[in-house]
């Protein structure tokens, strides 16, 4: 039994507590907080907990007891950050306490908090009233969290398997890659590990919201949508607010700064604390989302990660993603819109009394610093149901998330004289295979239809027009204004040909890449097609980093004829330009001669696989554990400068050793 003693600095004849037991084992078990590494009592709101007080003598007639709870720098009953409550029956709407079984020298008390109480670290004080005198004794501190097990809590979740997954599971899966090649990577949330709870509570106190008005900020911490929004602004460090992570998507990284090296949140959050809350370098979307999931689960808000493939970033909020190419098919980094191969955000589960019950459930929160919302880099909470129904005018940032999953995609050719011509429009490519981890397993669950109706369906187009009307007004027509010239949509002429890229073999880093452009004549007329092909190294945000090669050819297509054009990208061309995202975008701009500039744009994003490295050692491994042995050879698909031999130690379980190998 954990006990704390008090100094005996009060006159002995007054009723005085001498020490307290917080009953940590019992309380932690019933409140699902037994896995937290911190030593102080941690309980959940809306649920009773028990303490035992030892007194210097029995309570006498004319003496009464009351408790006081306080939180924040300026506790106030009007702000619901202070409560004074006498002994009564537990279960009242506010704070309450009841006396339980007693023995000589000690008394058990049951204390209950309201289901909407402010979360955080509380002071607990005992008040003893004797006649007209009141004596107060500070008993200690405890931490109060959100409670998904309490039906009265805004974050209540009625499925135990889902609570185990979205609150208590410390391990997760993040889906990355692209729409045609989805990969799973593990992530360790570690929300119960050493110092994590204190770090999360400190994060709230470092926010700009707290600095602006500490008393008001603390008073609003009973609201999960407020807490979620604050945390979304604090995970990134773009607002000079002591945020956790800086983002970086361009340029080179030192070995200890590459976002790809992170595989969990604990190291990041502990480093942030150790560095006196200076932002850690660096993060990208899945890192921001992983850390945010840790913090929200730690505070008791059910949270999961969601990956959106072909994710739009619509800067001008017109529901159109505009991408520009020169006349040879080279991607141009002009215009602010972009389409990311994937983007990862969070969903948290709580009700939305500010919007109405129909918008309860999963809410999008996004800590990746893309655009400012009300002056800060924060996003959400946006109701997933509001997104699906096109209610883009509702709080918070629903329009921004709607465009990420449902914008139209337009491609423009920029000619030498500066004129622009739209050559491609796709209403279905954005927001594909929206994915999250399954409950209780590492399988992928597709939640696309939680965000939107099936592409091309009457419901999807109805919702799209509804969203347009909320943005541009009720008189908007199907030909809404669009970039780059704010002019009505124009019909895109069909060139009468189709095309697609196909890989000749799986692309492996270190090997040459061979693609086949398959062009087909869709008509009975003979066609001559000029083909400008371009390959560029890109980031997963599809921003071009460097041009790798370009080539021009022409092909004659007879009636209903198809032909194959091979394109080889040597490793010597792309190796020095490739980023850690390992992506190459290939485009073919196909112009049918004598059709007055009618063009077909064909695109493909290639993600290179890692090469297998084969290590051979002399003698069998079973005889070599923890002994120095000669490496017979190390070989890999063109990634080694030379065959090499090293002495290394073949290690047993939980041991590690490094040996330097020069890569090409």
Automatic annotation (TrEMBL):
Its cofactor is Ca(2+). It catalyses: L-glutaminyl-[protein] + L-lysyl-[protein] = [protein]-L-lysyl-N(6)-5-L-glutamyl-[protein] + NH4(+). Coiled coil: none annotated. Residues 475-498 are annotated as: Disordered. GO terms for molecular function: metal ion binding; protein-glutamine gamma-glutamyltransferase activity. Binds 1 Ca(2+) ion per subunit. Ca(2+) binds at residues 406, 408, 455, 460. Keywords: Acyltransferase, Calcium, Metal-binding, Transferase. The active site is at residues 285, 343, 366. Pfam families: Transglut_C, Transglut_core, Transglut_N. Residues 479-490 have a biased composition (Basic and acidic residues). The keyword Membrane does not apply. Residues 277-369 form the Transglutaminase-like domain. GO terms for cellular component: cytoplasm. Its EC number is 2.3.2.13. Belongs to the transglutaminase superfamily. Transglutaminase family. This is protein-glutamine gamma-glutamyltransferase. It comes from Amazona collaria.
């Amino acid at each position: 039994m954990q006990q704390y003693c008090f100094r005996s600095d009060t006159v002995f004849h007054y009723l005085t507590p001498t020490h307290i037991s917080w009953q940590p084992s019992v309380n932690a078990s019933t409140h699902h907080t037994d896995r937290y590494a911190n030593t102080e009592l941690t309980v959940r709101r809306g649920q009773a907990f028990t303490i035992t007080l030892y007194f210097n003598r029995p309570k006498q007639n004319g003496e009464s007891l009351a408790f006081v709870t306080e939180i924040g720098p300026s506790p106030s009953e009007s702000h619901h950050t202070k409560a004074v409550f006498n002994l009564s029956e537990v279960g009242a709407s506010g704070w309450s306490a009841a006396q339980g079984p007693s023995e000589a020298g000690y008394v058990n008390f049951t204390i209950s908090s309201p289901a909407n109480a402010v979360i955080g670290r509380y002071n607990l004080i005992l008040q003893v009233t004797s006649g007209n005198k009141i004596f107060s004794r500070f008993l200690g501190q405890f931490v109060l969290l959100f409670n998904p097990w309490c039906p009265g809590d805004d974050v209540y979740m009625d499925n135990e398997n889902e609570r185990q997954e979205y609150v208590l599971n410390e391990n997760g899966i993040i889906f990355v890659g692209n729409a045609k090649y989805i990969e799973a990577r593990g992530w360790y949330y570690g929300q119960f590990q050493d110092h994590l709870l204190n770090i999360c509570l400190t994060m709230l106190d470092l926010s700009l919201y707290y600095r602006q008005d500490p008393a008001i900020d603390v008073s609003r911490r009973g609201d999960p949508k407020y807490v979620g929004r604050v945390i979304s602004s604090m995970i990134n460090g773009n607002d000079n607010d002591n945020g956790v992570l800086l983002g970086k998507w361009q340029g080179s990284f030192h070995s200890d700064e590459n976002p790809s090296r992170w595989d969990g949140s604990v190291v990041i959050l502990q480093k942030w604390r150790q560095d006196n809350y200076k932002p850690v370098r660096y993060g990208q979307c899945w890192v921001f989302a992983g850390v945010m999931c840790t913090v929200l689960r730690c505070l008791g808000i059910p949270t999961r990660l969601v990956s959106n493939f072909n994710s739009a970033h619509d800067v001008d909020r017109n529901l159109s993603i505009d991408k520009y190419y020169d006349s040879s098919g080279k991607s141009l980094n002009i215009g602010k819109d972009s389409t990311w191969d994937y983007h990862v955000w969070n969903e948290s589960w709580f009700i939305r009394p500010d919007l109405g019950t129909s918008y309860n459930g999963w809410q999008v929160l996004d800590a990746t610093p893309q655009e400012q919302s009300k002056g800060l880099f924060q996003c959400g909470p946006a109701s997933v149901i509001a997104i699906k129904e096109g209610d883009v005018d509702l709080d918070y940032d629903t329009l921004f998330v709607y465009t990420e999953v449902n914008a139209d995609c337009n491609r423009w050719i920029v000619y030498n004289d500066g004129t622009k011509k739209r050559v491609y429009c796709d209403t279905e490519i954005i927001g594909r295979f929206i994915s999250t981890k399954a409950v209780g397993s590492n399988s992928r669950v597709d939640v696309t239809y939680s965000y939107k109706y099936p592409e091309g369906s009457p419901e999807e187009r109805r919702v799209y027009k509804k969203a347009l009307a909320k943005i541009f007004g009720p008189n908007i027509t199907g030909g809404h204004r669009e970039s780059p010239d704010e002019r009505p949509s124009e019909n895109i002429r069909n060139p009468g040909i189709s095309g697609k890229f196909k890989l000749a073999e799986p692309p492996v880093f270190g090997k040459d890449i061979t693609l086949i452009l398959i062009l087909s004549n869709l008509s009975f007329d003979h066609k001559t097609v000029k083909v400008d092909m371009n390959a560029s190294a890109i980031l997963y945000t599809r921003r071009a980093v460097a041009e790798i090669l370009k080539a021009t050819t022409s092909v004659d297509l007879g009636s209903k004829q198809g032909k194959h054009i091979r394109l080889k990208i040597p490793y010597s061309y792309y190796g020095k330009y490739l980023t850690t995202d390992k992506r190459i975008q290939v485009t073919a701009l196909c112009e049918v001669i004598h059709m007055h500039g009618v063009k077909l744009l064909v695109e493909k994003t290639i993600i290179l696989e890692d090469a297998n490295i084969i290590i051979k050692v002399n003698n069998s491994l079973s005889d070599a554990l923890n002994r120095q042995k000669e490496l017979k050879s190390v070989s890999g698909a063109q990634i080694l400068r030379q065959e090499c031999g090293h002495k290394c130690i073949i290690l047993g379980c939980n041991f590690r050793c490094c040996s330097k190998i020069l890569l090409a």
